[in-house]
Structures are given as structure tokens and as C-alpha cells.
Write a structure and sequence with these properties.
The chain is α/β, with parallel strands linked by helices. Helix 2 links the parallel strand 2 and strand 3. It starts with 8 loop residues before the first strand and ends in a 10-residue tail after the last helix.
Amino acid sequence: MSAESTPATLIDGKAFSATLVQRVAAAVERLGTEHGVKPGLAVVIVGEDPASQIYVRNKGETTLRAGMRSDTHRLADTTSQDELLALIDQLNADAGIHGILVQLPLPAHIDATVVLDAIDPDKDVDGFHVVNAGRLAVGLPGLVPCTPLGCLMLLKDQLGDLSGLNAVVVGRSNIVGKPMAQLLLGESCTVTIAHSRTRDLPAVCRAADILVAAVGRPEMIQNDWIKPGATVIDVGINRVLSADPVKAAEGKTRVVGDVAKTAVEVAGRITPVPGGVGPMTIACLLANTYSAACRINNLQPEPLDA
């Protein structure tokens, strides 16, 4: 870092998400008082994946804190696809459930695409259903995947009006990359989607006023790939061996993003890992559940991002 430069401002996703959960809780309370509607979220987990178990528990606790109904369905990893689809049919028909989330990954014998497409699109709070993807693509109201929605909220909080900015999204997944690009287009950004076959990826990244990294490769984006002063959203959560040789020899790990730590020397603003995008996912899940409850009951959701 040169003597003239200053480190990037860290975008505090943890603080923003806490505020968002408070806003959701207040909106949920008004929804109950004024209309007698209590949003309900059902989470389905198949198998005993430890990380998924922790994530599902956190979702349930946060849902209850926001004043919502929280149902968790824990199924054995031997559960058949037909049994899982039957449960989803029940939840689709349950008037007290407004959001359905099936925790991924699923066991190998279950086709995740079939399962996700069985969820009622109006209850698809993950925003993965092809109907919601289509709604987003053509600019119609719908449920948006939680992680890109959280990224957009952080960007608008930091930058205000995004129109006219050059945005580069590195990664083209259906879960983050593609919906992120669509959201940025909706904010009138000029958007480039980059990926593993992009020619001269560093040069493409250096043109970005907004750089979103969502590739799942530890610290792939180097600091000399970043335009000075750019806003960097690091979606990556990668577990790698500890930098301490002794701890590494013991198999201890640490969490890093898709962007090199030295990016703080160049960027104007950047999300840290952990503590940046990650906390936004559950908060946006609650926001989606609240919005779904309103729309299912023909009510207009309150704005939650301002």
C-alpha cells in the first residue's frame, strides 16, 4: 500500500443484516395486527450434513426472533424422492406456510431440480424456481435468490443510485451470478458476466465500478485486477488450510473469499469474509418470506431496504 492510499471501507453485512431483521420483525408485527397474517417458513433438510444442520438451526432461530412461524422438517438421508415430493405437496397446500426452503445439497439419489420445481413459485423463498427466474428476467415482481438480493441491498446502501455504473459479475451460476446480473441490469448498470472462459479476465475486472466475485475459488481475484476505488462484493466462502504452518499441519482451516485479502489496498469499498455477504442471506430469506405472505394474501409488502 502506497503512502498516499488508504485502505478500503469495509462493508459491514453483519450490522446491515441485523437492521434488516429488525425491519422485517416490525413489518411482521404490523401484518399480524392489521391483517391477522403471521408469515410461516418451512425448512426441509434431508440427511445429516453438519454444515447444513447448523445453517438450518440458525434459520429457525432467526425466523422465530422475527415473529414468524418456523417449521423444520428433518428427514433421513434414506428418504425417497417421492416421499420428499409428497411433503412439498403438503406444504404447498398449507395456508399457514408462505415460504418453503429445501436445504441443499440433497442426497445423490434425489434430483434437486425436480424437487425445487415442485415448490409453489409463490412460496419459493429461495427464488430458484424457473418461474421466479423468468419473472426476474423480464422485470416482473417475484421472489429473488437471497444472496444476490443481499448483495444489491449492500450496494445501494453504499452507493445510492447505481445507474450508469459498469458492473462485472464473475460467475454465472443460477443461484448467484445470473440473478445478480439481472438485478444490476434492473438498476440500469452496464453489466458484464465473466466466467472461466472469459478472455483476459483481469482486464475485464479492471473495467468495473462494481465487481461481484462469485466463483467459489479461494482468493482468485487479485488486487491488480481491481479498478482503484471500485466497490467489491465478495460472495465467496471457501475453507482452506490455516496460514499458520503448525495449525495447517493439524488440519485446522480458515475461511477466505474469492478476492485476495490485499484487495483492501485498491478497492474503495469491499465486503469482508466472513462478515460481509454471508449474514445477509438469512436476513433476505426472512424478507422474502414476509413478502410472500403479503402477496399470497393480496397485500402490498412494505419496503424493507430503506
